[in-house]
Write a structure and sequence with these properties.
single chain; 187 residues; alpha+beta; three-stranded mixed sheet; two-stranded antiparallel sheet; 24% strand
Length: 187
Amino acid sequence: MDRLNRVLVLIADVVLLFVAGSVAAVALGAVPPSFRYTPWLSSGVAALHGASSAVRAWTAVIAALVFLLALAFAWFELRPRSGRRLVIKDDDLGQVTVARDSVREIAIHEARRVPGVRDVRARVSGAADGFRIEQHVTVDPSVSVPELARALQARVKQAVEHHIGRPVAQVDVETRLARPAPRRRVE
């Protein structure tokens, strides 16, 4: 299904590029009014040729923006998608990879098990010397942040190395204190 989606998006993108480029060319006067257009474009092109210069300028700007947007869609669709998987082992028996999201989920799961952690977001990247894990953690205001960060780093490093079998070079922790729960007044 992924390939079919990519093909459909690319076909729609090519059509969008053609239409936006054609409209911009007509609006800028690069195409003469006597040029033969397809029937579905003829009425719009005739109206554009007779429009004021301000309308034509705005039409050209909007068409150029749509053209650039279509180019961005094409780039996002055609860019290499190899960054989603990380190579664990590559030898004469073959290659073993792991989804980057799997490593991220392990890191989040282990961070949530550290007392005082309320919320976690993580990002994982691979390097020659091992994984680099960046975690953004919301912590309870009553805990010691340095102690919590050390415990979190050790726990995440040990868990990822155990489950994935590849070293963790670095675990960066960025903390933010959670807002304390409002106290209720008893009357």
